[in-house]
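Blackboard transcription, Thursday session:
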Amino acid sequence: MYVPNETSSMKSVQGALLSSIQLDRNSQITLFQQLDKAMRKLILNGAVIANQRLPSSRQLADDLGVSRITVKNVYEQLIAEGYVYSKIGSGSFAAENLKREKSPRPNKRTLLKYSQRKSTPKHVLSEQSKRITLSKATTRIAETRSFRPGIPALDVFPRKLWNKYWKEVNTNCHDDSFGYGPTGGIPRLKNAIAAHLRDARSVNCDAEQIVITTGAQQAFVLIAFALINKDNIIWYEDPGHIAGRDAFHTMGAKICPVAIDEEGLDLDQAIATHPKPAVIFTTPSHQHPLGTTMSLVRRLQLLSYAHDNKSWIIEDDYDSEFQYRGRPLPALQALDDQGSVLYVGTFSKSLFPAVRLGYIIVPHDLVAVFSAAQSLLGQGASVLMQEVVSRFIEDGRFADHIRKMRVIYQRRRDVLTVELRRQCSDMLTPVHTDVGMHLIAWLSDGLDELKTHKALLELEIETIPLSIFSITPQTKAGLVLGFSGTAPDDIPPLVEKMANCLKSLLKANTT
Amino acid sequence: MYVPNETSSMKSVQGALLSSIQLDRNSQITLFQQLDKAMRKLILNGAVIANQRLPSSRQLADDLGVSRITVKNVYEQLIAEGYVYSKIGSGSFAAENLKREKSPRPNKRTLLKYSQRKSTPKHVLSEQSKRITLSKATTRIAETRSFRPGIPALDVFPRKLWNKYWKEVNTNCHDDSFGYGPTGGIPRLKNAIAAHLRDARSVNCDAEQIVITTGAQQAFVLIAFALINKDNIIWYEDPGHIAGRDAFHTMGAKICPVAIDEEGLDLDQAIATHPKPAVIFTTPSHQHPLGTTMSLVRRLQLLSYAHDNKSWIIEDDYDSEFQYRGRPLPALQALDDQGSVLYVGTFSKSLFPAVRLGYIIVPHDLVAVFSAAQSLLGQGASVLMQEVVSRFIEDGRFADHIRKMRVIYQRRRDVLTVELRRQCSDMLTPVHTDVGMHLIAWLSDGLDELKTHKALLELEIETIPLSIFSITPQTKAGLVLGFSGTAPDDIPPLVEKMANCLKSLLKANTT
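(Written on the board underneath:)
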């Protein structure tokens, strides 16, 4: 039997101290609970030693001035849990073998957040968790601030309509919809997504190729998990999607930056510097965050290179349904007839983040391993939520919603652009975009990205400095501003606040 | 510029074949879509070569017998996407540099499921995904069958009440509740859980120590991710929880089986065979699946050993609130004053699986790394669902629900036990349990676990053979039967079916 070592055991104190227990009759905690807790403590800390006889319940009740029933109940509880044993005719005794180490409890107030800690944790953390602490993911602010990129127009989300679908599902769906559901998602949602994507994105897939995830981030993790070994090369757009990069980095991939030119990901540079990647991460429809659309020629070259070199391509198609001019270009996946592309989509942008649903379209021969991986990593997405979104798509509500949001976002983009030009000219230059939910604004000389970002954040304006997206240092300073999540009426006064902030930063710089 | 290699490029066929395009006027696909698709194909497969002039829209419209507007729209779309370019005054031409490999598209019907494939995938999978294919997690059946262990009484779940809370949240909550929410979960839910656990499980924690997950499985993955390096030793109860073991195995831990004796996890055996584990996985309140409750002495020894050896303990407290006799024992975590225990709980059992909410109580100095890891692995649990469950707990609905389910489950346990004894005696011996949602039944000689399981599954009865839970071969054959998810009126006829099935299996064996 395991016996704790000497240093961690403690000196036993002889003598029953039970009658000295202090009970507070004015406390919200019952006398039962107070006595129960006090006795456990005395037994565990050795004040009452093993096999020591406890006073009878009558005697202790008298000593403490409580009812005998209370004491009896405490004794029974302690017997049930093994702190005390009773011998018929002899009374109750403290149990044996309860000796244990005693060490000071850490003072909670002195404990700093992990990232700020000076001392190392006493136990060991994994290699991955050391990489996590480098991740940008830890810095997310709980509340959404104005202009945070990637946030849909939650202020105009059709809550009534949405609630109607929830009520329908909560009331009428089969009991199984309250269960775990099939690995990889419910067929009904897969069918709805496949039909939608064939139409909206020319995507070339069977419903069976779709694996439902809890969002794009989980999709990236699944891909890293299923396809990447430690130190595998991954081409990553530079600047590029932050949380995806953090995921691949933490999962052990070697992130190799690929610059963006006017046709998209710079293939020649990438081949020259890091040939034969295991995985290529790209946002061809709307480069994240620069906004470039990859040309057809580049798309075909990329597919061809990936096929020749057995590289997987991750196509992150996060917001391209919000196109404000012409028809959206078909997905890269639509051109792939070799099964090289894993197409990642999310409802976080097209509906809202708390829906916690996304999907990957994978080649047929990866469906089983991805479904299993997804089940393994967290049992999958909520079936109830899948049922709600299935109906929402089937009834045409989803396509309606996209159309409505397109009009709303275009207006928000226009107002933001006009206001930035009007109020911030000479300090900040917005770049026109015809797709998506954010725009880039270049900062004039004299404005530091990080300082500007911080100063704006104090005004509840949440931009992202371009350098946060960057792997290698960028030559131009800029901010990413989301326009989709901020109501048009709020934009002019917010930009006025921005303008004043930039002015004082510039002034502070010159004086 | 990257030029695809010779072998993957293809022979160009000269000549415009546009006028030979076949359009189907009876199809549901519009003529625009048919022509658009056909022209892309001819350009991409080289039937129309680079810089070749296309017929004028008028001419092609005449040749095909479609309106000129249709052809013009197709040309415009192809120009927008880069398949075609136009020169003013000269007409439209097929774009350059679109050459690409052509290889036969795999015939979908011939593709087998990953697990059944004979050939290796052309691209490389990761080490982890090879381990996934060994996992039991891939075998889950979509629909819940009778007696599946771990499924709550979905048939009596209070849907109306639940819907009231959803409506309240969908209608009134702040826009932020439709967003991503704070990393690690919303404070409101953490507070509600901490208050509940202090009361129900004597758990010793601040709300800040709680990390909200999408269920117990994600909690195990987070723990593996944050604390385990490849080939680290993990003590795992044998037999033990399947999906948790699969997660640790797939994440690279070395699973070391620890036998269960009448006091719980056999500490002496574990120390003798695999000393100093990184992590110890245990279900002290109700051993999964055997049902043993770990004794107080063993708990204290385990805590002491873990502290002395810097091992983390995972306490999986999955169903101990359903105790049918006496008060539940406090959690192991309640005895830990060294910060060695990570306490894992889930709402999958106490509410229902599709709620996709669970939690880990971690020592203070791990909160930040766990929250970041959780955000990284999938952005966290749905804020809407967190808001609903918070209110459900705060209003006392959750405690009510547990109390009601306790009565219902006790009745279901009683009916199942009585029926098994009545109808299956001499073939199957149920073991009495006072906790949880399942029971063990030992099989008589002559009944093979796996064969019995399969035969029952064909009758829509879903037991789990004990060997599936086991790491090392067990001497006794048994099945795990869940009683919580099956209505009492359904139990007698189901057990009758079972009895007949067992009889014919025994008969087949003896003849």
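Lecturer's comment: Chain B has a mean pLDDT of 87.
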